[in-house]
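Annual report, structural modelling task.

Input specification for the 2-acetamido-2-deoxy-beta-D-glucopyranose complex:
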Amino acid sequence: MGGRTLTAVSLFVCLSSLFSHTVGEIKSERIVADSRSMIVFEKFGFTQRGHVNIIVSNVSFSSALGRADPKLFGFFLLSDESFIQAVYESQQHNHSPNPNPQANSDDNKCVLFSSFVQLLFNFDELPQNSPSFLNKTFPITQPDEYSLIFASCVPETTVSMYVRTEMYNGLPDGPRDYLSAGQSSLPSIYTFFATAYIVFVGIWIYICLFKNRPSTHHIHLLMGGLLLVKALFLICAAEDQHYIKVTGTPHGWDVVFYIFQFLKGILLFTVIVLIGTGWSFLKPFLQEREKKVLMFVIPLQVIANIASVVIGETGPFNQEWITWNQVFLLVDIICCCAIMFPIVWSIRTLRETSKTDGKAARNLAKLTLFRQFYIVVVGYLYFTRIVVFALKTIASYKYRWVSVAAEEVVTLMFYAFMFYMFRPTERNEYFAIDDEEEEAAEAALQREDFEL
Ligand SMILES: *[C@@H]1O[C@H](CO)[C@@H](O)[C@H](O)[C@H]1NC(C)=O
Ligand SMILES: *[C@@H]1O[C@H](CO)[C@@H](O)[C@H](O)[C@H]1NC(C)=O
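The model returned the following structure:
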């Protein structure tokens, strides 16, 4: 039971740090007739004053091979470092003959008795009365990031139980912090960026409604909507994290959080697609294939958001959790690729018309604008999907907030750039033309091939 299961669990342990939207809140889970030999519950970064509280109740286990020894079921904590050692150790056990024939061979192979794990309790500590109930709190002796794992070392057994887990770090002045070490500054980070976007919305309203009202198009209103939704999303994220930090549960803010996350995702992709097609400031209508991109991306965003809710609200203990993570990744990648098509089509169209319609300067300006937009969108998607992922993986658990802050900084820069490039402007100022410039532009168009 050692090596292979540990290797399988490794995937869960690694992924759990990458995806979960919140960790460390109080969670109650119902395990029904589960035959997995390991169930990963939560991953949490503990400080010196860290504690784990576990309440298990209504425990029952049945084995196909007669009565199972309760000592072979239990909960333990495992840090990432010990994890590698434990995998190594269990492989040694599997490949070498038992060095101590007197010892119970089950005990020897059972991960609960490995010297690398921190055993919390086995089921032989469960009181005999029924329904069973056990409430235990364990202080953390060594600050680190640990996964809480349940293991069953008896093959072909099923376990049913209620588990309520509570992980927190004590604060010097008494109260508890239910956010993992390295994430406890998230409420402040979200509040800061929410304020930045509220200022941004104000500036955008001023530009659209007062400064450049005549050249404001529908797309600019939609962009304003996107900014507003992004600001509201950050406010919800701040509240959600604040309540989790203080009380361990989000007090319903998670629902609003998911609603705004959904609206934000749809609006962002729609705005990028519409700007990419040049809708409303270059042409008043959408072509059939451009509509198809939107009709394709919006349902995918619905799926991505369902996946994100499942990922955030359950955890690795859920057997389909990995699948949902894969669904989310796949759908996200498809959406990111799909929204590039309209920009590429626009660039192609502009290049073709520039050869025929004799307005070289104007076309060159548009072409440059779209090419810059293409590069900025690619850069933004690359950073928020790949660099942020890498930062999360590399950074120590104490600095997990860095990846969140980096993502928000880059997103704000992207919004600022996109909104600046496509702000309402008077056309003449945009594409000022005199003969000299016209000739220069013609030459430039011929010289430069905007290859993608
Ligand atoms: C455990 O079982 C008892 C009866 O068997 C039931 O009354 C109780 O609600 C159960 N506990 C939980 C947490 O559901
Ligand atoms: C579990 O025990 C702690 C004290 O160790 C206590 O504060 C808490 O109320 C108990 N929980 C339940 C559900 O009995």
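Residues 3-177 form one domain.
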